[in-house]
Amino acid sequence: MNADSVAAAIANAQEEWDSGAGDDAARLTAAVLLSDLRRRPITSWSERARTLLDSLGIGGEVGASGGAVLVNLFSRSDPDHGSWPYLFWLGERGARLQLLEGRDLRFSALAALPTTPTPPVSVASLFLRRSGAGRQPILMAWRAAAGGTFSLLQTLGPDSLGGFGSGEFAMEDTTLELHTRTWRPAKLFEECSTCPHVYEVHHFVWTDAGFMRLNDEEVGSPYSTFVRFIQAVVENDRDAGMAQLADASLWDQARRLQWNQPRGLWRAAPSSDETAHEMVFFRGEQEAYRVTFEGRAGRWTITGFTPTTRSVE
């Protein structure tokens, strides 16, 4: 584009964003970005994209990895109206762009292989989908296809990545991995997006066939210990329950308090610290208990619990 064409494209893009025509606005904005990036070294693309979008008053989340830059475009005045992810990379004949799958999601992280400023062979992006209970990570991976474009190879949603939470790409030795830290609603407990949760960490490794699961592990915390204990008491699983206790007599004490009977959902008291040595839990509409914990080498056990008042609510 020459200077007049660029100015006209910018004006048209801004008009489309103002009118709510997100598809056309994103397409015109991406074309302006491509024209600008063609004149610059790839190492400056991500910073230049941020600077240009900011100067135009257009919303954009930008991520870079190796020879690729992802720009997730959205209306700054109406960020919930939608988003459009565009991939920019340096092909054999210069800068290229492509609209990717993943519309209406928030961008989180980008990874590309190889990791040097050459045409990438594979690209992966971690997105976040908004939900009433929090944000759910979604992974999409693409592979270079005939014609110099990218085709979608894999999608991993909340069922695979663990529900609600976050994630990141990480280099481990010579391989690239995806790590997510996520949670699902705990049975018998009432949880909000900012409440304590039972977190799990999931590890995936990037292979030619896509991301493959390596392992899953629960993140130890006082809250997760108490959740596991309550679930064991209700299910009368003594072995599972005893594994959460520092004192075996607490199993019988919990049964005397009739914790094995349905009397409403449990929840942590407001502003609870899920890694504290002492927490208050509410049960149903009236009961409250102060629970103490002991932590050693990342493992937490319950050392005691007593009824208390609900004045902290």
Q: Could you characterize what this model shows?
A:
The chain is of the alpha+beta class. The protein has 2 domains: 59-218, no CATH class; 222-307, Nuclear Transport Factor 2, Chain: A, CATH 3.10.450. It is 24% helix and 42% strand. The protein contains 7 helices and 16 strands. It has helices at residues 3-19, 22-37, 45-56, 158-161, 222-234, 238-242, 249-256; strands at residues 59-65, 68-74, 84-91, 94-99, 106-113, 122-131, 134-145, 149-156, 164-172, 175-183, 199-207, 210-218, 266-268, 278-283, 287-296, 299-307. The chain has a 4-stranded antiparallel beta sheet with strand order 1-2-3-4, with helices on one face. A 4-stranded antiparallel beta sheet has the order 5-6-7-8. It has a 4-stranded antiparallel beta sheet with strand order 9-10-11-12, with no helix packed on it. Helix 1 runs antiparallel to helix 2 (22-37). The longest helix has 17 residues, at 3-19. The N and C termini lie far apart (62 Å). The model has no long low-confidence stretch (mean pLDDT 93).
